[in-house]
Write a structure and sequence with these properties.
CATH superfamily of the largest domain: CRAL-TRIO lipid binding domain
Domain CRAL-TRIO: 79-239
Organism: Juglans regia (English walnut)
Number of domains: 2
CATH class of the largest domain: Alpha Beta
Number of helices: 12
Distance between the termini: 69 Å
CATH topology of the largest domain: Phosphatidylinositol Transfer Protein Sec14p
Strand content: 5-15%
Order of helices and strands: HHHHHEEHEHEHHEHHH
CATH architecture of the largest domain: 3-Layer(aba) Sandwich
Helix content: 40-55%
Strand order of the largest sheet: 1-2-3-4-5
Number of strands: 5
Protein name: CRAL-TRIO domain-containing protein
């Protein structure tokens, strides 16, 4: 880091020394002892403007307090059948680590349906995975690899992406906004694989709308991305949908090593951790059913613009397909 950024970190740390409880306590849950790295993330998200980064960080702390985010890892999604339904329709997992020690998160964008529970359950699940990553996985990785590890790598599988994804855009924009405002700069790189034409058409339009900082992190890889990803991680850490050409098919979700599965070690450890935390925090009272309600943010202008653009491009793509199908039908009749 340069002199300017070091000075900005020093200034923001000075401002954070002045916050009082309960913000101070939740700030400790965020930084986990990595103070400079944490404030640097918020500074990067606000182009190293100290005043804007300070407002962003304080707003995030207030969001955490108002929504009891510090307690979200003690609030399991029950009954277990509902949790399994969420996992089957919100495909995410951890497949291993990069060669630098960064956890590799696999996300099934194309095959996630988000249709088995209410929006609040999916938001709750997403935030729980974020918090588990920050409070358990990253500290554990830092210890395992003997160096501070504060970010992860995400591999996004576009297999199965269809026009029906239009119905998911609002929820995905909400989740993205939560991440942008409260978990900035936690992802080191995004690798997009198994890309169908429908995504390629959208990406050409959306890419220029992204901030340069975000755009630099995104790489669209050829096919399942196996060869490129093996440059940054070992074969055992590849998500199951990257292990061979064509491995992004729907059947691969049921194959051995499927990191989306509730039976995968990552999900077993997460599920057991939340269950144990719930017993510690509420040892007498039975766990209440119902989602952990989190105030849903208004999507930022940039996020809304991108969502509208994706929706527009998908609709154009759908219209072109319908016209093409109609023309094919006419040809068949003519013959």
């Amino acid at each position: 880091m340069g002199i300017v950024s070091q000075e900005a970190i020093k200034q923001l740390l000075g401002l954070m020394d002045q916050v009082e409880e309960p913000l101070k306590r939740t700030f400790q849950n965020i930084h986990q002892g990595c103070l400079a790295e944490t404030v640097a993330r918020f500074l990067k998200a606000r182009e190293w403007n100290v005043a804007k980064a300070h407002k962003m960080l304080v707003d995030s702390l207030n969001w955490r307090v108002q929504n009891e985010i510090d307690n979200i890892l003690s609030k399991p999604i029950v009954p277990s059948e509902l949790y399994r339904a969420v996992r089957d329709s919100q495909l995410v997992g951890v497949s291993g680590y990069s060669k630098e020690g960064l956890p590799v998160f696999a996300i099934g964008v194309g095959l996630s349906t988000f249709d088995k529970a209410s929006v609040h359950y999916y938001v709750q699940s997403h935030i729980q995975i974020n918090e588990y990553r920050d409070r358990v996985i990253l500290p554990s990785a830092s210890k395992k690899f003997g160096q501070p590890i504060n970010t992860c790598v995400k591999v996004l599988d576009m297999t199965g992406l269809k026009l029906s994804a239009l119905s998911q855009i609002k929820l995905l924009t909400i989740i993205s906004t939560i991440d942008d405002l409260n978990y900035p700069e936690k992802t080191n790189a995004y690798y997009i694989v198994n890309v169908p034409y429908v995504f390629s058409a959208c990406w050409k339009v959306v890419k220029p709308l992204l901030q340069e900082r975000t755009r630099k992190k995104v790489q669209v890889l050829s096919g399942c991305g196996r060869d490129e990803l093996l440059k940054i991680m070992d074969y055992d850490s590849l998500p199951h949908f990257c292990r061979r050409e064509g491995s992004g098919s729907g059947s691969s979700r049921r194959s051995y090593g499927n990191c989306y599965s509730l039976d995968h070690p990552f999900h077993q450890q997460l599920y057991n951790y939340i269950k144990q935390q719930s017993l510690i925090c509420e040892p007498v009272e039975p766990v209440k059913q119902g989602s952990f309600h989190v105030d849903l943010p208004e999507p930022a202008a940039e996020g809304t613009e991108i969502a509208k653009t994706i929706q527009s491009e998908l609709q154009k793509f759908g219209n072109r397909n319908r016209i093409h199908d109609s023309l094919d039908g006419l040809k068949i009749e003519d013959n």
